[in-house]
Design brief:
By secondary structure, the protein is of the alpha+beta class. 49% of the residues lie in helices and 20% in strands.
């Protein structure tokens, strides 16, 4: 079993687990250290917990409760891959901490969870502009809703909350060249990360991380129109820590590479300059 950390914070940590065990390997008892939900993205394995046996396939969810013992088996196929979200107590309390919900052991492939699980994987792979911490919180919240049968619709935002969302958006835009995660933005707003995510998304129509990425792209487009900055300088100046990620994200948004965008901006400037001369 290999465990690769993808994100670690007080409210949520995300790991990529890959297991190569097969029918010939002897299973052993493990214990959940906290609340967790693990999305099975590939392969299959069995799980024995609280006197029940589950067979998990792609799309299933392994559910962890603090202190519960469990045993994973591979009686049928070799290996599996999971995207696992380990939740802080504050986040669990915010989305629902009823014991019976977190002690079910596993959830079958459910469309409400599978679509978010694949979105989370896209975020982990850098193919989405939603934050991995954001989609993890959404995944856990949706899990609680589906299992409990109770929809947790946020109340309509009042003037104070709408102002809080707008002011935090302005703060994100002003600091978009820095590393900002959900916890930092929520702290700026003065509320818990889970409630801030729902408030911000409800008021502005995008998640905080999506707004952060789009702010960076907006600043990048402005700098690319200026020949004084190289594409690499633009990428790092606006907050992208990786040039290839910047190029990929910009191309996805603009439909052209940063270099082609710069060439187009030069052409537009030339056209306008020629028109001014003619007039």
């Amino acid at each position: 079993m290999t465990a690769t950390p993808l994100l670690q914070s007080d409210s949520i940590s995300v790991f990529d687990f890959r297991c190569t065990a097969g029918p010939a390997d002897t299973p052993f008892v493990e214990q959940h250290s906290g609340h967790s939900v693990s999305y099975v993205r590939k392969g299959s394995f069995g799980c024995r917990s609280r006197g029940r046996t589950f067979e998990l396939v792609a799309g299933s969810v392994l559910v962890g409760h603090p202190g519960d013992e469990y045993m994973c088996t591979h009686d049928h196929v070799c290996g599996d891959e999971c995207l696992s979200f380990f939740l802080g107590e504050a986040l669990v309390q915010a989305i629902g901490d009823r014991g019976e919900i977190w002690q079910i052991g596993a959830a079958p492939p459910l469309p409400e969870l599978m679509v978010l699980g694949e979105l989370a994987q896209a975020a982990a792979d850098g193919r989405s502009d939603i934050g991995l911490d954001e989609v993890g919180a959404l995944f856990a919240g949706r899990f609680v809703e589906v299992v409990s049968g109770r929809s947790q619709r946020p109340p309509a935002a009042g003037a104070k909350d709408r102002r809080r969302a707008v002011e935090t958006a302005l703060w994100i835009d002003a600091h978009s060249h820095l590393d900002i995660d959900l916890e930092q933005a929520a702290t700026q707003a003065g509320i818990s990360p889970f409630h801030f995510l729902r408030l911000f998304s409800g008021v502005l129509g995008v998640t905080p991380h999506q707004y952060l990425v789009r702010s960076r792209l907006r600043h990048a487009a402005r700098l690319l129109a200026d020949d004084a900055f190289s594409v690499t300088d633009v990428a790092y100046d606006v907050g992208f820590g990786d040039l290839s990620n910047f190029v990929r994200t910009f191309h996805r948004a603009a439909g052209v590479s940063p270099g082609k965008f710069r060439e187009a901006s030069r052409g537009m400037r030339k056209i306008f300059q020629e028109r001014l001369v003619l007039h």
